[in-house]
Design goal:
The protein has 278 residues and is mainly α. Helix content is 79%, strand content 0%.
Length: 278
């Protein structure tokens, strides 16, 4: 139950971070937004270091660095995917892949689910697709390149979560610090190389920093959830993060929640209830 609550918190934090990051990216080039968000996220993890502790052993360094590379790749592939579109087809594919791969790894590592879990897990995967799909999903056919990028983005997100899960359980938040430092370095290097293409628009500093802080909180909650529960369950609950984005868009931007998304939110609630009995 503790792992489930932590995973729900991680999902909500990821959804809020994506919402704020998306709003920030409307005002300036997305890399300008990330140049604010990434250092803010790293600062939070450094502040938590004395509180939660960190052991920088070889395992934490290796898996943390791997998660950082995967995170940077996920960022690049995801935004390239959404730029090609159609978003309402590609977003569910990315979300589904990011959930299925960690579930498969968890089951291969010997995790077992009871009857409630066997019912709740596929229902949660269906909810991930429905919640992340916009209006008219399936009305446009994506190109082969867009599909490959969507699968790649989902796989990179999944690998980030899997690598964090593989880090030693006694390493504290060291994997998060290393991963964020690596992903920040990669992102800032990309921004420096593409500086002339970033435009002159000033980023939304407060919004971008808040997105980074929430992303850091989401990573921390996922790490704690994965250490106290099954990766298969934790990953699929975390993958419900589009629900938080959808609800915030409704509350703040007055965006309409479509019928399929409402069904997805209901399915997510049922799935979480079933997984609570696992």
């Amino acid at each position: 139950m503790i792992a489930l609550l932590l995973a729900l918190g991680s999902s909500l934090a990821y959804g809020c971070a994506d919402f704020l990051g998306g709003l920030g990216a409307r005002r300036a080039h997305v890399l300008r937004t990330v140049m604010i968000a990434a250092p803010a996220s790293l600062a939070v993890e450094l502040l938590l270091w004395p509180v939660l502790g960190a052991s920088f052993g070889s395992g934490a360094l290796a898996w943390g660095a791997a998660s950082g590379v995967a995170s940077a790749a996920a960022f690049a592939l995801l935004y390239r995917t959404l730029a090609i579109g159609p978003m309402n087809v590609l977003s569910p594919i990315t979300a589904l892949v990011s959930a299925v791969l960690p579930v498969g790894v968890g089951l291969l590592q010997g995790e077992h689910l009871g009857l409630a879990g066997l019912l709740g897990l596929p229902l949660a995967l269906v909810a991930v697709v429905l919640v992340s799909a916009g209006h008219g999903a399936g009305s446009a056919r994506p190109s082969r390149t867009a599909l490959l990028l969507a699968f790649g983005a989902g796989a990179a997100i999944a690998l980030q979560l899997i690598f964090l899960h593989q880090a030693p359980s006694d390493s504290g938040i060291a994997p998060l610090i290393i991963g964020r430092a690596v992903s920040s370095a990669v992102t800032l290097a990309a921004a420096a190389l593409l500086f002339r293409r970033l435009g002159t628009e000033r980023p939304a500093y407060a919004m971008s920093a808040a997105a980074g802080v929430l992303d850091s909180v989401a990573n921390l909650l996922f790490l704690l959830a994965a250490r106290s529960g099954d990766l298969a369950v934790v990953a699929v609950i975390t993958a419900l993060y589009p629900a938080g984005t959808v609800l915030l868009a409704r509350a703040v931007l007055d965006e309409r929640i479509h019928r399929g998304q409402l069904v997805g939110l209901g399915a997510a609630a049922v799935a979480v209830s079933l997984l609570a009995f696992t």
